[in-house]
Amino acid sequence: MSNDKFFLTYNQQMRKLRNDKHIICEGSSHKKILVRAGYFNIVNGYKNPFVSGQDSQGNHFYIAGTSIDQLHYVKKFDDQLRSFLLRYITQVEEEARTLTAYKFDECNDNGSISWYDTNAYSPNRSLQEKMDVISRAYNELSQSRLDYVKFYMDNHAQIPTWIMIKVVNFSTFIDIINVSKTDVSHSLCNLYGLEDKNLQPNVKLLIGCLHWMRKIRNSCAHNERIYCLTRKKNTHERSGRILEKYFQSLSRGYTRDLNQKIFDLIVYFKYFLPRSEYKQFILTLKNMLSDLQSKIHPHAFENIRGQMGIKNLSDLDTLLAIPKDEIVYNKFDK
After folding, report:
1. Closest Cα to residue 251, out of 158, 317, 169, 189?
2. Whole-number pLDDT of residue 57
3. 148 Cβ partners below 8 Å, 6+ apart?
4. pTM strictly above 0.70
5. Which of 74, 75, 83, 82 has its CA nearest to residue 295?
């Protein structure tokens, strides 16, 4: 068993960082960081941006002058980024669920065809697909402990669509959109400007956006590292970057890199957020990045920027400046 598997006191941890890793860690303020964050959370979690190479035994060495403070700054940035993105993801998710429930009932004779009836879904989908999603929705409703779900189960003959859509898991919600009648997915695409090169509703883009939001939201909820989150291109699973119109308006590097990263979410928000809200989102993100840039080594910052999928910080301004139509919510029911 290697030495780093044994229990180490905080003072021993500090000596290990200084002597073995040559990371500056001394004094009460640095010890406080280790006590509050934990060695694994801060060192193993956030050392990678500072790695400058490794020796013949595979041991890392770090950018000269790296300190525990700088690792802590990256952790605090990641914590802030996690909360920041989660706030916007849940906002988009809630709105999309509300709109889907409304359009679902509108497309089914104003709700006279119930969501648990296979006739409420697309005739182009197999009976098995429709039964699977209905069964999952039933199961998730039955396991819910929410007061309003219990109230409807105890006092009504059926659960209304809006409650079902609100309660089911994010992945089940996405599958409901996928198997619903065409008007449901197309109305969402039309509202948010999700169009293909022929200006037709791009359902693939809609589903892809929502799935990447779901992945990031789940990682946020489990307190995982966010800035470096990546989903590699997998042809078999049809995962990876969706080369939509905003990526096409940026540098060619974005169309060559087919892995999904945090920058993909930043792009997707341009569809789902009104212009004023998106502007505020970008400005806040830029401030967060600028603050981090001022506190850590330039090479470490460039590593973090790259792992987020941002080729150049000026691309955030370019993305913001790309014209887009305002979201016209008042015409959703027309």
Report:
1. 317
2. 76
3. 163
4. yes
5. 74
Between CA 31 and CA 10 the distance in angstroms is: 7
One DSSP character per residue, 63-80 reads: -TT-BHHHHHHHHHHHHH
pLDDT band at 210 (very low <50, low <70, confident <90, very high): very high
Q: Are 241 and 257 in contact (CB under 8 A)?
A: yes
Is it the case that residue 220 has pLDDT exceeding 50?
yes
User: What is the mean pLDDT of the segment spanning 6-29?
Assistant: 92
Distance, in Å, from the CA atom of 245 to the CA atom of 326, rounded to the nearest integer, reads 16
CA dist 263 and 272 (Å) reads: 15
Between CA 86 and CA 95 the distance in angstroms is 14
DSSP code string of 164-203: HHHHS-HHHHHHHHHHB-HHHHHHHHHHHT-B-TTS-B-H
pLDDT in tens, 120-173: 999 999 999 999 999 999 999 999 888 988 888 888 878 999 999 999 999 999
Residue 23 Ramachandran class (φ > 0 left, ψ -120 to 50 alpha, else beta): beta
**Any idea which residue has 């200006």 for tokens?**
199
Longest CA span, the chain? 72
pLDDT at position 238 is 59
Residue 60 region by backbone torsions, left for phi larger than 0, else alpha for psi between -120 and 50, else beta: beta
DSSP letters spanning 118-130: GGGB-TTS-HHHH
The two three-digit tokens of residue 12, written as one number = 């021993």
